[in-house]
Amino acid sequence: MLFAVTIEDKPGMGATRRAVRAAHIEWLEKHREMLVLAGPIMDGEGNSIGSVRVIEAPDRAAVEALTEGDPFAKAGCFGRVSINPYRIVFKDGAKAE
Q1: Nearest Cα residue to 78 out of 4, 8, 6
Q2: How far apart are CA 14 and CA 4, in angstroms?
Q3: CA 93 → CA 5, 47, 88, 89, 96, distances in Å?
Q4: pLDDT, tens digit, for every residue of 14-69?
Q5: Which one of 24, 75, 78, 93 has the lowest number of neighbouring Cβ atoms within 10 Å?
Q6: pLDDT digit string, tens, across residues 35-47
Q7: How far is CA 66 from the centre of its chain?
Q8: Which Gene3D superfamilies match (predicted)?
Q9: Which residues contact 68 (CB under 8 A, 6 or more apart)?
């Protein structure tokens, strides 16, 4: 099952995010089989202020556990996390259904 995960960082977490980024990337590598899509949300100046992910997992509990294990979460970066079932309709310019 696919889940869309939208994460908004707490204000002022840029330095913390930069300090933990290497651990975060290593963590993503360990869980790459679950990642359909993952990347940062950027502000107008190009600074990361959160993340968007599409995760393949058996259930919401698995996505919650995955998200809670993120080094960014453990460092206190996350202000708001939204997890919702997701369905791909278009991919790479073509209808996917």
Answers
A1: 8
A2: 23
A3: 22, 28, 12, 10, 9
A4: 999 999 999 999 999 999 999 999 999 999 999 999 999 999 999 999 999 999 99
A5: 93
A6: 999 999 999 999 9
A7: 10
A8: Dimeric alpha+beta barrel
A9: none
